[in-house]
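> forwarded from #structure-qc
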């Protein structure tokens, strides 16, 4: 019974049940048709023989007799049919075999006389064999006072029908057995990929996510299942690889400033220093601590974004005021670096966003642009309505982003080689964090083609979409 609680067992049981029901209906139809055909054939023979005998009966002064003397015991085709002429006083004449008792003949004759028409019956003869009987009333002296009873043994037909039932049952049982075996084999073949997937799922760990389900399956639901499972493994492998790289990169970013701070502290403790020297050492270490604090803050926010816990608090932001306020905050830094901030603001308009998160994205983009913009050039900050929302754009006239690096631009700790390398303040998390904040608002951050330089565009959707994304 445990077998039938498995999927394979249930499939086999279901197949046998359906096949058994179909065979039962088919066998019933065949046997019923055969029995009806045999019965109709027997009845046709009896009616034909009764008509032949009735046509040869003579009425002589109220006495019935058959023209040739004795009633025929078989048809012209050689089929044995017994007959009897029965009157109220008894049997007038009868075939030699006399298979039916007198009482049965009298009863059938009386029924035919009462009904005034033919009577059919199934009886048992004196040998215990089944017979089919046909009785019709006869007219004697203008009155229906006698009857002709003809009968035929149906034991051979019943024996044939019984043999047919047995053979049909054996054939059906064989078909069910073969069907069950085929269903068991096919179920095993069909479910083999599922077993392979289950076995792989039980044995796989985070160290061997490169394994895949390698079974040949047709391009159907099973093929889709195998492809989906392999795709899930590929995504898990990519996620774990990304996590490993993230952990290694984060460890490196944390270890470098900590090592510097440790070396400086050890150096300062080896010999006495003046107050001014201690002050410069503390200021240097404070810069390293600030760098670590920024890094920890970025890592924490990225972790919240990964966990789906980065929920913006959207509100209406005046776009023009936001752009001018941002440019004013960065103007001193831009002057120190020999660059300037240009603003292209709309006359009016409000965007829906979390002001602090929006400010963080734009600050990251401006800081990034100021690093790579050539000295003496400006960074353009502008915004404009687009697709029922707003697009914030930060562009510079620097060397641009290498083509081979664009696919990894928004990955964590990703830094381009060559022209756009980070200076001392970057950790490679700014763009990744900005992209996560954009997604939390229901928008996106992308790099657009600029000639020359790089153009970063932050797309924010309409207010209802931003609120919906924040609630999710």
């Amino acid at each position: 019974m445990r077998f039938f609680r498995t999927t394979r067992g249930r499939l086999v049981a279901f197949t046998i049940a359906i096949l058994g029901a179909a065979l039962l209906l088919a066998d019933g139809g065949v046997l019923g048709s055969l029995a009806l055909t045999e019965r109709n054939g027997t009845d046709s023979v009896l009616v034909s023989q009764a008509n032949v005998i009735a046509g040869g009966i003579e009425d002589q002064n109220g006495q019935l007799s058959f023209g040739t003397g004795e009633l025929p015991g078989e048809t012209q085709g050689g089929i044995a049919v017994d007959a009897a002429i029965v009157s109220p006083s008894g049997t007038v004449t009868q075939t030699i075999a006399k298979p039916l008792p007198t009482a049965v003949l009298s009863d059938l004759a009386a029924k035919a006389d009462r009904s005034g028409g033919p009577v059919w019956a199934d009886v048992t003869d004196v040998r215990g064999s089944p017979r089919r009987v046909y009785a019709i009333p006869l007219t004697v002296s203008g009155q229906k006072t006698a009857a002709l009873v003809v009968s035929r043994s149906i034991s051979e037909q019943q024996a044939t029908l019984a043999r047919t039932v047995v053979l049909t049952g054996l054939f059906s049982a064989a078909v069910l057995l073969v069907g069950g075996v085929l269903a068991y084999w096919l179920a095993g073949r069909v479910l083999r990929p599922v077993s392979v997937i289950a076995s792989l799922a039980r044995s796989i760990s985070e160290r061997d996510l490169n394994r895949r389900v390698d079974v040949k399956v047709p391009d159907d639901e099973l093929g889709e299942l195998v492809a989906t499972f392999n795709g899930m493994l590929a995504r898990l492998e990519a996620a774990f690889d990304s996590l490993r790289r993230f952990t290694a990169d984060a460890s490196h970013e944390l270890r470098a400033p900590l090592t510097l701070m440790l070396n400086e502290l050890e150096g300062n403790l080896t010999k006495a220093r003046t107050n001014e020297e201690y002050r410069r050492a503390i200021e240097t270490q404070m810069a390293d601590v600030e760098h670590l604090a920024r890094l920890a803050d970025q890592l924490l926010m990225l972790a919240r974004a990964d966990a789906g816990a980065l929920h913006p608090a959207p509100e209406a932001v005046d776009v023009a005021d936001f752009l001018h306020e941002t440019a004013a905050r960065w103007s001193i830094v831009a002057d120190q670096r020999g660059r300037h901030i240009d603003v292209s603001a709309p006359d009016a308009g409000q965007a829906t966003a979390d002001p602090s998160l929006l400010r963080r994205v734009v600050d990251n983009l401006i800081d990034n642009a100021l690093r790579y913009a050539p000295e003496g050039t400006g960074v353009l900050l502008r915004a404009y309505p687009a697709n029922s929302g707003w697009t914030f754009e930060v562009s510079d006239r620097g060397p641009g982003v290498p083509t081979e690096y664009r696919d990894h631009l928004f990955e964590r700790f990703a830094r381009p080689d060559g022209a756009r390398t980070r200076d001392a303040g970057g950790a490679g998390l700014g763009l990744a964090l900005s992209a996560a904040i954009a997604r939390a608002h229901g928008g996106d951050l992308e790099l657009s083609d600029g000639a020359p330089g790089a153009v970063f565009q932050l797309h924010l959707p309409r207010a209802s979409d931003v609120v919906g994304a924040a609630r999710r």
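QC bot note: The domain at 221-306 is CATH 1.10.287 (Helix Hairpins). The chain has a mean pLDDT of 84.
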